Amino acid sequence: MIATVSRMRALSPSRWMAGLVALLAIAACSTTPEGPRGPVSPQPSSPVIGEAPPPATLPVPIADPAFTPVHMRGQADIARVAILLPFSADNEAARREATSILRAAELALFERAGENVLLLPKDTGGTAQGAREAARSALSDGAQLILGPLFSHSVEAVGSVARESSVPVIAFSTELSVAGDGVYLLSFPPGEEVRRIVNYTADLGTTRYAVIGPANEYGTTVAAAYRDAIAEQPGGARLVAEEVYSGGVQAMNEAATRLARMGVEPLDAEEAAQRSGRNWEPDETAPFQVILLPESGDRLRTLAPVLVYQDIDPLLIKFVGTGQWHDSATVREPALANGWFAGPDPQARARFEAAFERVFENTPSRLAGLGYDAGSLAALMAASGSQGFQASAIESEEGFLGVDGLFRFREDGTIERGLAVYTVRSGGFEVLEPAPAYFGEGRVLEDPAGPATDIDAAESF
């Protein structure tokens, strides 16, 4: 891990906790619920000193402009950060996700923020109108930065309101069309995962690619990103086959049959014995050398054997996927053994999950890490004063090292992530190629999740 020469002030648990206690009291009284630089990196999550944060609470209605709790009155440099989430959405899963993300953001601020950071939770209700009203409420309370919301329609609504006050938004949606003009997406867009796996296979000499996937929004998005990533490769890489299906196993089989007609030849026993999925190399005779399967769970476990049934053999043609493959169901399917996919670096994530479980006594959701990274970013920006919430700080070229590894924001508001390449084994997943520790020509960090050390021209969350 890296640390700045001029560190931010140490966290004062008692002062920060007093703020949380004050907010809970309000809720109880309410009637309504020089060379290239390295990336900015968080210090490793450590045991919480003093009293742990209380469980996440629903947002409280605050009517006073630039609301200031009693314990913070008199401070001139208060950094007000709003977090907008669907706490009262109709969908139960969305409500659980909102609580998990909020708790993670609270944990990040408790561990990393100075005494001047005030978190303002706001309920979007899971609707665009609710998000718009939540954004207006946040701005009336003096918010200088908005974290969230979660859904794309809500992000679009919040962005239109926040732009009127030139307040940046760091949202959690994967819908790229809502990014830009002050809206940044802290999420896991499938295009980043696809680009990573295409780059990895192209470096091994792959030139012919195929994809078979569902005729839905996710499948269409992934296929488009796949085409773009292949087109970026030097050496004449091509997408030679693209098949889609609507439905279950019969539709999958029909699409796989069309792929097999391209001239796929089954391996005989002797050829199969000479090959190993662990030391795969592109085969010059295969009509396509890599095939992308943008499915997950039981549907992925259905699709992979269908391909094998049509003699599309993973010993010859490498099966690859997206981060959705990071699921226990993937490991249980023999046809997916030795398949590859891209995903976040596991080291920092494991440390975050341990800290979250220790404090809140339950397991964080998959998206909770976004809340932690958003909270850490808010703490970092608040430590920089009034300049911290400007676009130049958010769009740092060096990027940041967060719970899910290296990331940075592009000028158009989309995110670029440094991802690892995983392979599927019988007992779980193994890292084939680690995630990069820096962008461009920055300093290599031997252990980005290790102990903090003093390195010039580097900062910490």
TrEMBL record:
**Disordered: where is this region?**
32-55
Tell me one Pfam family matched here.
Peripla_BP_6
InterPro entries hit by this protein:
BCAA_transport, Leu-bd, Peripla_BP_I
Q: Which UniProt keywords apply?
A: Amino-acid transport, Signal, Transport
Q: Which PROSITE patterns match?
A: PROKAR_LIPOPROTEIN
Please state the span of the N-terminal signal peptide per the UniProt entry.
1-18
Ranges for domain Leucine-binding protein: 81-428
Can the keyword Transport be found in this entry's annotation? yes
- One GO biological process term: amino acid transport
Q: Please give the family membership noted in the entry.
A: Belongs to the leucine-binding protein family.
Q: What is this protein called?
A: Penicillin-binding protein activator
